[in-house]
Amino acid sequence: MITWGISANSHDAALAVFEYKRKGLGPNHSLELKFASHSERFSGIKNDAHLNKELIDYASQWGEPDEIIWYEKPFVKTLRQFRAGQGWNYRENDIKRYLKGYSITAPIKYTSHHHSHAAAGYYTSPFSDATVVCIDSIGEFEALTVWEGKGNKLKKIYSQGYPHSIGLWYSAMTQRVGLEPNEDEYILMGMAAYGDPSRLFMDVLNDFIDKEGIGYNPKIKLNHNLHRGCRWWRPDLTTEQDMFDIAAATQKVYEYILCNTLVWAGRNSPSKNLVLMGGCALNCSANSTAYRFYDNVWIMPNPGDAGSAIGCVLAHKKKHMSMDHVYTGYNIEGEYPVEELVNELNTTGIAGVANGRAEFGPRAFGNRSLLADPRGSDIKDRVNDIKQRQRFRPFAPVILSEHYDKHFDGRANEYMQFTSTCKHPDLYPAIVHADGTSRVQVVPKDGSGIRALLERWFELTGCPMLLNTSLNIKGKPMVNNLTDAKEFAIMYNVKVFTGKQ
Ligand SMILES: [Fe+2]
Q1: Label partner for 346 (CA 20 to 30 A): which of 177, 304, 453, 473?
Q2: How many other C-beta atoms lie within 10 A of the C-beta of residue 230?
Q3: What distance in Å separates the CA atoms of residue 28 and residue 307, rounded to the nearest whole number?
């Protein structure tokens, strides 16, 4: 049986294909993830909210779907939109009609928005028991939920409802500093390192968060409904340094609320394992604080709404599955071009790679990456020029796991979800942030292409790491296929290696 999980019709659509098979004569079934991708990779439209024919045709190579699981409950969402003064839009949320527009007519089942988040995290985690915390802007009505996972069951133990949403507030502050809400939150997080958090911490806390809710609990009460942002807040703050200070205070207030939530969750659910999910789980600076309260932490590598294409299916099937990589997207066949990449990196310092199956999630881990030699003082500016990003923004390193301790301090994993302190910032200035931290991708002996490349790079240069950023043209999604790779190479005059086809 082929099951499709779909998250779409809102922002950053995604589709996952599962094969669900009976094992033997008993009631046991196996569930195998065959494919998962963001819609944007096939349409070329960044954060594309909708499905497209190319994506559906590609997903159909595993067979037509026998059932569809949708990642949220459209009627409840419509109710919330109505209550928020957005009118009665059920026609827009009529998913049967929406999918029929793409010739998808299989029966549809629905899972609630936060249940999809919780399931995406819990059932892909290595834990048989866990406390699951989901924080995002908004689901149907929920903005923060806490769950207890045990065996194959997920039980909700706390729910925070709209409009009191810490995710919505973080997006509003993103807009307040002049960035794009629901898109540039990670830039606000990066800006925080350049600001003084103490200057505006109390102002931000007092102006936005109701004091009654503050304490060791997840109850957030906002003083304002922030659905339309907060551009009106403190018009006297206008300089660039003001923006950095707002960012620093916002980040600190978010961390403070996250810590309060985790303390409460720890007291009310006995597990030492934490699963953190929802769009806010992309905040790697704050994520590191979770280790203060939990022995083990798992964040599914695509914790936002796109990851719910996987989560809604797991919620419905109540099945654990191991997620030891995220290479589940479009396939560029051919051998990983290790030698070509090493030669180019040695000669020019920068090379692109597009090979194998594309990553599912917002980050590139070596199959759709722009790589660079992290040594030397000019490399950050050179790569920033290609990516056309703000110059203050650092890049992430990818390192062989056995060399991690020599170069970094702190918890890190394969998915750049936490921040570590770099021990030698002078040697690797391109991959260290203003506060001395790095967002590290650690590569174990997993047989991946990036592992083979790093081993060869280390053998030749003695350097165990590379700079790794996603391979995408400014304003466009990550490179997906050979045509995209060629377009990138021509536009930026950077060689992109795709392996021998
Ligand atoms: Fe969400």
Answers
A1: 473
A2: 16
A3: 25
Assess contact for 55 and 95: CB atoms under 8 A: no
Q: Kindly list the distances between the CA atom of residue 28 and the CA atoms of 24, 317, 466, in Å, as whole numbers in the listed order.
A: 7, 12, 44
Please tell me the distance between residue 27's alpha carbon and the centre of ligand 1 in angstroms.
33
Residue 176 Cα to ligand 1 midpoint, Å, equals 22
| Token pair 């050979």 in the structure block, residue | 482
What separation in angstroms does the CA of 302 have from each of 35, 166, 329, 461?
14, 19, 13, 33
Q: How far is CA 257 from the centre of its chain?
A: 20
134 C-alpha to center of ligand 1: Å?
A: 8
* 142 Cα: distance to centroid of ligand 1 (angstroms): 9
pLDDT of 312-324, one tens digit each? 999 999 999 999 9
Cα of 102 vs centre of ligand 1, distance in Å, is: 24
Distance 177 CA to ligand 1 centre (A): 23
Please give the torsion angle defined by the CA atoms of residues 271, 273, 276 and 281, in that order, rounded to the nearest 10 degrees.
140
Q: How far apart are CA 373 and CA 397, in angstroms?
A: 10
pLDDT of residue 388: 84
pLDDT of residue 81: 87
* Number of helical (H) and strand (E) elements in the chain, helices listed first: 16, 21
279 CA → ligand 1 middle, Å = 6
Q: How far is the CA of 113 from the centre of ligand 1 (A)?
A: 6
Question: Residue 4's beta-bridge partner residues?
Answer: 17, 68
Cβ contact 11:49 at 8 Å = yes
Q: How far is the CA of 52 from the centre of ligand 1 (A)?
A: 21
Backbone angles phi, psi at 277, to 5 degrees: -140, 175
User: Which pair of structure tokens corresponds to residue 71?
Assistant: 């990642």
CA of 46 to the centre of ligand 1 (A): 18
> How close is the Cα of 280 to the center of ligand 1, in Å?
9
Per-residue CA distances from 184 to 117, 170, 306, 347, 459 (Å)? 21, 10, 16, 34, 38
Q: Is the pTM of this model over 0.85?
A: yes
Joined tokens for residue 346: 């040695």
Q: Which tokens hold the place of 490?
A: 């021509």
Determine the distance separating the centroid of ligand 1 and the alpha carbon of 103, expressed in angstroms.
26
**366-405: buried (b, 16+ CB within 10 Å) or exposed (e) per residue?**
bbbbbbbbbbeeebbeebbebbeeeeebbbbbbbbbebbe
